[in-house]
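tool_call: predict_structure(chain=1)
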Amino acid sequence: SAESVNLLFKVSRESSLIRKAMINCFGQMASTLSYVTHNNIYFTINCINELLSLDQSITFIIFFDLIKKCFERLKKTMKNRNAKNITKLYGYRVTMTLKLIISFLGFCEKSKEDFRLITEISYPLVELIQSLLELYPHSKYYPLFLKHLRMLIDIQKHLHTRIPLSSAIFKLMNNRSFL
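tool_result:
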């Protein structure tokens, strides 16, 4: 009946808002990463994974929106490469948000459920991380470079696919400041 459809729509909309609010709170918590909050952040990632696994269509929209925001931040940084934009792009909030998405891919792989819609997000995610690898302006960002390489390796592992990483590794190894 029309009442039950309206009720389902209302519940679906509210659950979507709850998921978005959780991810926003996660982003705020991740922006203050320290040795004290490290375990809390990974606990939160596990909790969010459980919640997001309930409805993959909403999760797809949320993750696509997060990746889109990261691309917009990358585009802004490419246009104006000042220290503020680079620091925002390479901050813990962006890095941990990418880590959340990748950990959800791993969660889906372990649960053995049909999450084909979520795996569709892997292509823009790989493109984003590879773009971040190309932007590293200074040797102080090499640990982050290695963390992003690790993210690509995790994506390969979770999706059982191959992502070419050799060019990024050679670029890093050929840099004189790395040696």
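agent: The CA atoms of residues 146 and 169 lie 9 Å apart. Proceeding to next step.
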